[in-house]
Design brief:
Blueprint (H helix, E strand, L loop, with lengths): L10 H14 L9 H10 L3 H9 L9 H11 L3 E13 L2 E12 L4 E15 L5 E2 L2 H15 L3
Antiparallel strand pairs: 1-2, 2-3, 3-4
Helix pairs in contact: 1-5
Length: 151
């Protein structure tokens, strides 16, 4: 999972929540643990390719086809899902989270699907409003993204 600026501090927790939601969701997809993916990339000597790919990644820009193919081969997967924490803020008494995802066909170098999961959470809806925790709001946003994945 990626995120820019101040969102980076939430990435470890956001990643764990997303993975837990994915494991318990009914997406129809098989998940290779990201830590295992990184080990496979390191074992094949593609660390520099992966670092360049991940540092230059943005949801607005499609990745180059060759690095995508190499990474797919290294992890042993045809399809790669990359997620981005795009928003996490408390506004108007609510915690707001938006997670975006992009699914690629690594073999063909094509984007197959893009989607978002969003959540706006309150603990109490009466004044004074109390925002829900990041964890709960992130879990709802993750579930929304996962449910939108194509089968």
């Amino acid at each position: 999972m990626y995120g820019a600026g101040s969102l980076r501090e939430f990435l470890p927790q956001a990643n764990e929540i997303f993975l837990e939601s994915f494991r318990h969701g009914n997406s129809g997809w098989t998940l290779i643990d990201p830590k295992e993916c990184l080990q496979r990339i390191q074992q094949t000597g593609l660390d520099p390719v992966y670092r360049t790919f991940s540092q230059g990644y943005a949801m607005k820009n499609p990745p180059l086809q060759e690095p995508l193919r190499q990474i797919g081969e290294a992890v042993g997967a045809r399809y790669l899902l990359l997620t981005e924490l795009q928003q996490m803020e408390t506004a108007e008494g609510a915690t707001e989270v938006r997670v975006a995802g992009r699914l690629w066909d690594a073999k063909m170098g094509e984007t197959l699907w893009e989607g978002t999961g969003e959540s706006r959470g309150y603990v109490f809806l009466v004044f004074p409003w109390v925002p829900s925790s990041f964890e709960k709001t992130m879990a709802v946003a993750s579930k929304g993204l996962i449910e939108r994945l194509p089968n």
